[in-house]
UniProtKB/TrEMBL annotation, chain A:
Pfam families: Ald_Xan_dh_C, MoCoBD_1, MoCoBD_2. This is Xanthine dehydrogenase family protein molybdopterin-binding subunit. PANTHER family: ALDEHYDE OXIDASE 1-RELATED, XANTHINE DEHYDROGENASE. The keyword Lyase does not apply. Residues 21-136 form the Aldehyde oxidase/xanthine dehydrogenase a/b hammerhead domain. Its cofactor is Mo-molybdopterin cytosine dinucleotide. InterPro entries: Ald_Oxase/Xan_DH_a/b (IPR000674), Ald_Oxase/Xan_DH_a/b_sf (IPR036856), Ald_Oxase/xanthine_DH-like (IPR016208), AldOxase/xan_DH_MoCoBD1 (IPR008274), AldOxase/xan_DH_MoCoBD2 (IPR046867), AldOxase/xan_DH_Mopterin-bd_sf (IPR037165). The keyword Oxidoreductase applies. GO terms for molecular function: iron ion binding; oxidoreductase activity. Keywords: Molybdenum, Oxidoreductase. It comes from the Bacteria.
From TrEMBL, chain B:
It comes from the Bacteria. Transmembrane segments: none annotated. CDD domains: fer2 (cd00207). Keywords: 2Fe-2S, Iron, Iron-sulfur, Metal-binding, Oxidoreductase. The lineage of its organism: Bacteria, Pseudomonadati, Pseudomonadota, Alphaproteobacteria, Rhodobacterales. Residues 3-79 form the 2Fe-2S ferredoxin-type domain. This is (2Fe-2S)-binding protein. PROSITE patterns: 2FE2S_FER_1, 2FE2S_FER_2. One of its GO terms (molecular function) is metal ion binding.
UniProtKB/TrEMBL annotation, chain C:
This is Xanthine dehydrogenase family protein subunit M. SUPFAM superfamilies: CO dehydrogenase flavoprotein C-terminal domain-like, FAD-binding/transporter-associated domain-like. It comes from Antarcticimicrobium sediminis. One of its GO terms (molecular function) is FAD binding. Gene3D superfamilies: 3.30.465.10, CO dehydrogenase flavoprotein, C-terminal domain, Uridine Diphospho-n-acetylenolpyruvylglucosamine Reductase, domain 2.
């Protein structure tokens, strides 16, 4: 018997209390004995040859301990190449820590200065003589593919990183027979994660024992343990990666960066701790960027508005080198596979071109690929509705996969176990008061006030198995592990491989374990983020913390439950099957009557194992790993709506309200789920209206500071109302799926539809993000 | 040349010798190891570094330590210990108004300063008061809710006292 | 983003400050609120040998009324523009502008003098000063002079303050009977520098508007007085036609900078829209 007292409850996060008291423990806060500070000299140009690099004056500067260049640092690290086998034919140049001969983007690290303070390291950076012979930078993806354009980097034979096509046999016929075809071209700007805590690492190599400890603000400590061990030739049990509190991650902090590798290398060389915290300026030119897609797409419909097919061409620009170890192709790959996903669309063609350019790398960032696929699909659905004179709700009702039609396989080959699009749509209509909003919209238009309502259905990929990266040869774990133990005093401890960046991982794990052991979540202490003290696992990426981590914890908890009951049975001379755990005690299963406390079990098994019958195993520790089986991914679904008001004279959009109906399967903690969704929505609205990494023709990012790059702030963001449908996955006992990316997946799509709905009376439309006043005014013909 | 400064930090007299270029934030974090004050941009754009300086909220990244010579500084650690923001801490906790926690110091400072001057702020006024506080994780609504709830508690308490 | 090294002195008088400046051979920067200076140091956009802190100088503080002019000390913080009753009564465009300037904590530190001396073309207070026909009190080794705001703003980040001189105070003529004002801006986010902004002041008489004063900002290298628009409104009652004429006149008044992210045509368009809105919502202040 498993009690379910705590799964499903809105437990508050205990670890939030530390932050509220100013007692967070971030890598940025760490100061170790003998520690030195790193700063990097970076290429000021997007592309060029290093003609001269003279660090002698910098090496003599006050406070400077050491200066490294490619020549003196790179040899201790094996180069890495961001390709994967399952992306057939993809290519990318090998990388190493500091630029060797050629610089590939403005911001590319060229030299590393280590000093007693960061200020002194920065002072010394100014003394480095760096002469770069400027070469023509490739800044535009379309231009990059034109014959005769220079190559982005050495080590590649064309600027095309990867190309693929996905096509059903009936595609051409579907378009030939269509009653209606709508089409458009879209541009999705480049943006970036801007985690409030920048990337931070303190590497601490102790030559006396050969132990390397890396305090690393990352979501995937085991991956980095493996990377450091492999690239630097160390046994992985001598590499400890600790990810303490992490000030935001969102996918950005799971890639291998030149600077982190260089910091580890420097610590290995110096035998002392080396600290690097990216300042905000270098974050903008060294953190991965995201998106940067140009998509042309068309959709075929029959006379009733049934979607027959989509034909999509995505060109995505990924910077100079594909990221390691997950590549920069995964996003485009997901874009073309998620197109049309909510709909019973039988035919499809998706073409993908992944192109190099002399800019910062792009790669996985929250909701990888989803916002692009969703925005394109939903924009075309709205255009179709307009053409057929159907209400946007009506056309979706006609085309969303029926709730009783599962399992269902999409035209792109994704297998859906069970989704709830129609239930979600109905609920959305109700919570947003759709009909009243439409009436209000019509009324306000008469007064010259232009409001728009935009809707976007979506599916989200969660709980990925090895199909994502493992099959392509990446050493990225798709399994997770947990160690659950009963302490000698009868309290519970769980060490687990999924990590916490504020989502509430530790809280939900405590809830799940508590229910297996009949205790309260506050009796379960959860440890995460340290490769020495927790079992190895995938940690946190692609929405797997609750679904996979939760299931791992559940199974570990059940295993410990069985062990406890076996000991209790031996002590009580009862069949373990007649016993259960509840209220911190072992109870009689039939009557619920207390038999013995967990504290007593802990005491006996620890201090008086001699009193146990012979052969009775006194272990109070259970270990369990879990790898998802069954469906390759657990898809979730949902729908979002955005309500906006466009000032048609200024092009400024006001976000009035946002709604989300979400089905993430079993909800472990509603409070945390809702806040994941809200945060995700705003991370989708940011790039829809504000966020964009802007570049000039020379490949210089022109707004690379927090004063110029516009993040979404409290004043502009709307309140977000959330409702749920719960369709648990049957692949696991727990039934939970992921939710972390759902908000981001469709918020921008809903917003774009809303803006276009507002602009419709003027005959204007916009299909580029961010939807800035300039672009809206241009669409309106004012500029 | 380094300068000797004396200031009161969270009620304790502090004497430090600093380079004039040292920001108040770096003094607090590096010299005094009060790491609850965070740095997110070092140019006044994110609000992670807010502290109270002689009773008003300021960006510790934009104030030089030498400028604060002779002044009183309250950091999150001090406000926490004094109990002055206990109600805000509780409503933030209840409402899950923080995720990674990196912005939380600044949010609490802005909230504390707002409520000191406006006992019954509207949601819009709260959002306005947070206009310089960046949060990547929460989407802001929970923070607005938490501040609003703390204001309500204070008002109810004041009514009860009458 | 750590500043380069520099020396620091806290001046006790204007004379003190000026002699420190002279002794540093001009390789010095005055520091008031520091909210423009400190970020620019952190960005290593400048590297002066010496920072001269003006915050302790009595002559730069205080708000007082003399002969129909309000004298506002240069060290007056933005937040005082928001809250001080004398400023609200006698320099109401500063009060109207203040909520648009940055965020609460920045307003606690940033100073009016610093904002005017810094002369960012997208700044609110400089335009308000121009629209109010303020005069700037500048101290030099030769003595003190008063410069009309129209002559004060010279170019981007450039004013009539010569190297080493100190802006002591801002003098604003008190509103006269019938005075109306309007202030607004279009910005991407709350507290951001304006995409386009407008500060307007006029005297409303039975016969129409007199003494119309319009300063637009973020439309050129410094606040721009819209003379043609002023003329178009003078002697007229505010109605749709008058507003339209003023908006049309901006074509001649403005020559906005052109950049792909922000074309001149967009600035001109926004300036017209904004001016129309401000004129339609003028408020009486006296
Ligand atoms: C995040 C952020 C957002 C901001 N947003 C806005 C905004 O929306 N609108 C806006 O207008 N401003 C904005 N500002 C700027 C802020 O208002 C500045 O503080 C102000 O413009 C300068 O004032 P200060 O007192 O800080 O001057 P300081 O930074 O101390 O000085 C500015 C310049 O003026 C000189 N100076 C200062 N005082 C004198 C004097 N008395 N005599 C001679 N020279 C002097 C200094 O040497 C320096 O060159 C923002 C600042 C930040 C950090
Ligand atoms: S660190 Fe001070 S405002 Fe960002
Ligand atoms: S909680 Fe992470 S930045 Fe606000």
């Amino acid at each position: 018997m498993t009690s379910t007292d705590h799964i499903g409850q809105s437990h508050r996060r205990e670890n939030a209390l530390r932050h509220l008291a100013g007692r967070g423990r971030f890598v940025t806060d760490l100061a170790l004995p003998r520690m030195v500070h790193a700063a990097f000299v970076r290429s000021p140009m997007a592309k060029g040859k290093i003609v001269e690099l003279d660090v002698s004056a910098a090496a003599e500067a006050p406070g400077v301990v050491r200066v490294f260049t490619a020549e003196t640092l790179n040899p201790i690290c094996a180069p890495w190449t961001g390709t994967l086998d399952h992306f057939a034919g993809m290519k990318s140049a090998p990388q190493n820590m500091l630029a060797e001969g050629q610089v590939l983007w403005a911001g590319h690290p060229v030299a590393m200065i280590l000093a007693h303070s960061r200020a002194e390291a920065e002072d010394a950076c100014e003394l480095v003589l760096l002469d770069i012979e400027d070469e023509e930078a490739v800044v535009d993806g379309d231009a990059a593919l034109v014959e005769g354009t220079p190559l982005v980097s050495e080590g590649i034979d064309s600027n095309l990183c990867f190309r693929t096509v996905l096509e059903t046999p009936g595609l051409d016929e579907a378009f030939a027979n269509a009653a209606h075809v709508v089409e458009d071209s879209f541009t999705f700007g480049r943006h970036t994660a801007v985690t409030l805590e920048p990337r931070a690492v303190v590497a601490d190599f102790d030559p006396s024992t050969g132990q390397l400890t890396v305090h690393h603000g990352t979501q995937t400590p085991y991956q980095f343990q493996d990377v450091y061990a492999h690239q630097f030739g160390l046994p992985d049990n001598k590499v400890r990666v600790i990810a303490p509190d992490v000030g935001g991650s969102f996918g950005m902090k799971l890639h291998v960066y030149n600077e982190e590798m260089a910091v580890v290398a420097a610590s290995l060389k110096l035998g002392r701790p080396v600290r690097f915290v990216a300042d905000r300026l270098e974050s903008f030119v060294s953190d991965v960027h995201a998106r940067d897609h140009r998509v042309s797409a068309r959709m075929a419909m029959d006379a009733q508005g049934t979607i027959l097919a989509m034909d999509v061409d995505d060109m995505t620009q990924i910077g100079a080198i594909s990221t390691y170890p997950r590549t920069s192709v995964a996003e485009g790959n997901q874009v073309i596979r998620l197109m049309g996903a909510p709909y019973t669309m039988p035919d499809y063609r998706g073409r993908l071109s992944v192109v190099f350019q002399n800019k910062v790398q792009t790669s996985q960032y929250r909701a990888v690929g989803h916002p692009i696929a969703c925005a394109v699909t939903e924009a075309l659905v709205d255009r179709a509705a307009e053409q057929l004179d159907l209400d946007p709700i009506e056309i979706r009702q006609r085309n969303l996969v029926a709730d009783d039609a599962y399992p269902h396989v999409s035209a792109t080959g994704y297998q859906f176990e069970k989704l709830s699009h129609h239930a979600a749509l109905a609920k959305l209509r109700e919570i947003m008061g759709y009909d009243a909003l439409r009436a209000e919209q019509a009324e306000l238009r008469k007064q010259g006030i232009y409001r728009g309502i935009g809707i976007a259905s979506f599916v989200e990929i969660t709980n990925p198995g090895a199909a994502f990266y493992g099959v392509g040869g990446a050493r990225v774990s798709a399994q997770d592990g947990a160690i659950v133990r009963l302490t000698p005093s009868g309290e519970v401890h769980c060490a687990i491989s999924v990590t916490e960046q504020g989502q509430g991982t530790e809280t939900i794990i405590a809830q799940v374990v508590a229910d297996q052991l009949g205790v309260t979540p506050d009796q379960v202490k959860v440890t995460t983020g340290d490769t020495d003290t927790t079992p190895s696992g995938g940690a946190t990426w692609a929405c797997r913390g609750a679904g996979i981590g939760g299931e791992t914890a559940l199974r570990a908890g059940r295993r410990l439950q069985a062990q406890i009951l076996a000991i209790a049975g031996a002590v009580l001379q009862a069949e373990p099957a007649t016993l259960a755990l509840a209220g911190g005690t072992v109870v009689d299963k039939a009557t619920g009557k207390e038999r013995i406390t967990l504290a007593e079990i802990g005491r006996i098994a620890t201090y008086r194992p001699d009193t146990l019958p012979e052969g009775c195993d006194n272990s109070l520790t259970a270990v369990q790993h879990f790898a998802p089986t069954g469906y390759p991914f657990d898809f979730t679904n949902g729908i979002q709506a955005s309500h906006v008001e466009v000032d048609i004279e200024t092009g400024v959009t006001r976000l009035l309200k946002h709604w989300v109906v979400e089905d993430c399967g079993r909800i472990i903690n509603p409070l945390l789920v809702d806040e994941q969704i809200r945060g995700g929505v705003v991370q989708g609205l940011g790039p829809a209206f504000f966020e964009e990494c802007m570049y000039d023709d020379m490949g210089q990012m022109t707004n690379a500071s927090l004063a110029d790059y516009l993040v979404p702030m409290a004043g502009e963001m709307p309140d977000i109302e959330i409702a749920h449908i719960e369709t648990p996955t049957l692949d696991t006992i727990l039934g939970a799926k992921g939710v972390g990316e759902a908000g981001t997946a469709a918020a921008g799509a809903a917003a774009m539809n809303a803006v276009n709905d507002a602009l419709r009376p003027m005959g204007a439309r916009i299909s580029q993000t961010p939807m800035t006043p300039l672009r809206i005014l241009t669409a309106l013909g004012h500029v | 040349m380094k300068a000797d400064i004396t200031l009161t930090v969270n009620g304790e007299a502090v004497r430090e010798t600093v380079e004039p270029r040292t920001s108040l934030a770096d003094l607090l974090r590096d010299n005094l190891r009060l790491t609850g004050t965070h740095l997110g941009c070092e140019m006044g754009a994110c609000g992670a570094c807010l502290v109270m300086l002689d009773g008003v909220a300021v960006h510790a990244c934009l104030v030089l330590a030498v400028q604060a010579d002779g002044q009183k500084v309250e950091t999150i650690e001090g406000l926490n210990d004094s109990g002055l923001i206990k109600d805000l801490q509780e409503t933030f906790h209840d409402r899950n108004a923080l995720q990674c926690g990196f912005c939380t110091n600044g949010m609490l400072m802005s909230a504390y300063a707002l409520l000191a001057g406006n006992s019954d702020p509207s949601r819009d006024e709260i959002r306005d008061a947070l206009s310089g506080n960046y949060c990547r994780c929460t989407g802001y609504e929970a923070i607005v809710d938490a501040i609003s709830a703390a204001a309500d508690h204070r008002l109810n308490k004041a009514k009860g006292a009458q | 983003m750590k500043s380069p090294a520099f020396e620091y002195v806290r001046a006790e008088s204007v004379a003190d400050a000026m002699s420190a400046y002279a002794e540093a051979d001009g390789d010095a920067v005055y520091l008031s609120g520091g909210h423009s200076v400190v970020p620019s140091l952190a960005l290593r956009l400048q590297a002066p040998a010496l920072l001269i802190d003006l915050s302790n100088i009595a002559a730069l503080s205080g708000i007082s009324l003399h002969d129909g002019w309000l004298r506002i000390g240069a060290m007056t913080r933005h937040v005082q523009a928001l809250k001080d009753p004398l400023i609200a009564a006698h320099a109401p465009l500063f009060t109207a502008a203040a909520p648009f300037v940055a965020h609460p904590a920045i307003r606690n530190r940033g100073t009016l003098g610093g904002s005017l001396a810094h002369a960012d073309p997208a700044s609110e207070f400089p335009a308000a000063a121009v629209a109010m026909r303020a005069e700037l009190e500048i101290a030099s080794s030769q003595g003190i002079r008063r410069v009309p705001a129209d002559d004060f703003f010279v170019d981007i980040y450039e004013t009539a303050i010569e190297p080493g001189e100190v802006l002591q105070a801002i003098h604003v003529p008190s509103p006269v009977a019938g005075q109306v004002i309007g202030f607004d801006e279009i910005a991407r986010r709350r507290g951001d520098y304006a995409m386009v902004g407008a500060a307007v002041q006029a005297v409303s008489r039975g016969s129409g508007l007199e003494d119309v004063s319009i300063a637009l900002f973020s439309v050129g290298n410094h606040p721009v007085r819209a003379r043609k628009a002023q003329a178009a409104l003078t002697g007229r009652m505010i109605d749709a036609d008058a507003i339209a004429d003023a908006q049309a006149a901006l074509e001649d008044d403005l020559d906005p900078p052109d950049d792909p992210q922000f074309p001149a045509s967009m600035r001109l368009h926004l300036a017209r829209v904004l001016l129309g809105r401000v004129l339609a919502n003028l408020e009486a202040v006296a």
